[in-house]
Specification:
By secondary structure, this protein is an alpha+beta fold. It is about 35% helix and about 25% strand. It has 2 helices and 5 strands, in the order E-H-E-E-E-E-H.
């Protein structure tokens, strides 16, 4: 499973929050079980208008590309036009954060050892 160390992800997320981006408060870094007890983290984003958590992580172990995975829902959700618009804004914020993390990965020249 792909990972970055917890400290790196927390620093990147703090930098992202400083940009004042919409939805930045909905993003968190949580502890992720790494191989051999490695200090790894996972970025999550809570969608308020779909009651769904999105995890954002590198596409592969050493990849600079990042992907977002939405957890499955047990129940269907029905949204009116304003609700859909609000959800689309949240998804745009997830996309922006994913792009930010991709750029940080590309810019990172150091070795990130968990």
């Amino acid at each position: 499973m792909a990972f970055r160390n917890l400290e790196t992800l927390e620093a990147w997320l703090a930098e992202y929050r400083e940009t004042g981006s919409a939805g930045a408060a909905s993003a968190r870094v949580v502890v992720q079980d790494g191989d051999g007890g490695a200090d790894t983290g996972l970025v999550t984003f809570q969608l308020d208008h779909a009651s769904t958590v999105v995890s954002i992580q590198p596409a592969a172990q050493d990849a600079t590309g990042w992907v977002a995975t939405m957890e499955p829902r047990e129940d269907a959700i029905a949204l009116d036009a304003p609700g859909l618009l609000a959800l689309s804004a949240e998804l745009a914020a997830v996309s922006e954060l994913c792009a930010f993390l991709e750029q940080k990965s590309k810019d990172d020249t150091g070795v990130d050892v968990a």
